[in-house]
Amino acid sequence: xxxxxxxxxxxxxxxxxxxxxxxxxxxxxxxxxxxxxxxxxxxxxxxxxxxxxxxxxxxxxxxxxxxxxxxxxxxxxxxxxxxxxxxxxxxxxxxxxxxxxxxxxxxxxxxxxxxxxxxxxxxxxxxxxxxxxxxxxxxxxxxxxxxxxxxxxxxxxxxxxxxxxxxxxxxxxxxxxxxxxxxxxxxxxxxxxxxxxxxxxxxxxxxxxxxxxxxxxxxxxxxxxxxxxxxxxxxxxxxxxxxxxxxxxxxxxxxxxxxxxxxxxxxxxxxxxxxxxxxxxxxxxxxxxxxxxxxxxxxxxxxxxxxxxxxxxxxxxxxxxxxxxxxxxxxxxxxxxxxxxxxxxxxxxxxxxxxxxxxxxxxxxx
Length: 366
Prior knowledge:
This protein is α/β, with parallel strands linked by helices. It has two domains: 2-129, Up-down Bundle (Four Helix Bundle (Hemerythrin (Met), subunit A)); 154-360, Translation initiation factor eif-2b, domain 2 (Rossmann fold). 39% of the residues lie in helices and 19% in strands. The protein has helices at 41-49, 56-73, 77-88, 95-108, 116-151, 180-188, 204-216, 228-233, 259-269, 289-292, 301-304, 354-360; strands at 2-3, 6-7, 11-13, 21-24, 35-38, 159-163, 192-197, 220-223, 239-242, 246-248, 253-256, 273-276, 282-283, 305-309, 315-319, 332-335, 342-345, 348-350. The model has no long low-confidence stretch (mean pLDDT 96).
């Protein structure tokens, strides 16, 4: 995707040394675009846990490069397994992380130590290229949904789409999941408008999704998290598209906290609720999302404080709750498959069910 007309991916290798991994520091957005250079697996782990890099597909890709960085220091079997375990433990909910590490290990265990670094960088690069291609395909399949809505609109009438959190290109290697169809619809000339949930407590919608859409020129409006249901009741939402950090073999969806409430509101108002994901986000080993998906508990400080830009252009973090008040911070919730209209994958669209997934991915569900 492009920033001010310049094409970027969300992770790339520094061309000067062919080893350093480069990412954007997402904790600095939307106020400044800062590039981080990661040279060790520990720096990669910190970037993931601190959410300098975030988004399930991107976490997996960066972790793959993190293992390559680790092997450049010590390519032994023991070191490789230890570093892989360390990286896999950085974020518990997003399944792409575990998938990428397992893929890397499967490839590297059969490779001689002297060749592992080169093979690791090559495999991580393939993971990145595949993610970009998958998300572009998701965009094409999701675009059809927006085209169908446009057919029932008057000429020039807005197509209002609501999204939650950030599932754009900054959350993947390129294109994004939930935002990919929106970008393609806008580029095609369809009159799309996006309601952007602020997505407390880290405000990934207000900070990242709004920044992405604005950089691409897509009309959008930031709303507080609790406004979505009101807009649906008054006919101001045609479609909801969100991303996800893990989908079960039965179609349950784990996504940023608050997604479940949007799905309930959409269900009550008869509004299509679609979830966009690459197949790497499907956890074929899990069936019951509510019971089996681990929900990450993050720092209460993310709830009790907020960071923003002052009138003088300085970033400041301020407390917004009383001293002594406790805060809970579950980072994700699970939306049962019964509330999901369907899934948009790189292979096409399907119902959020074992049967629907089986049709797109035969042999994956035992």
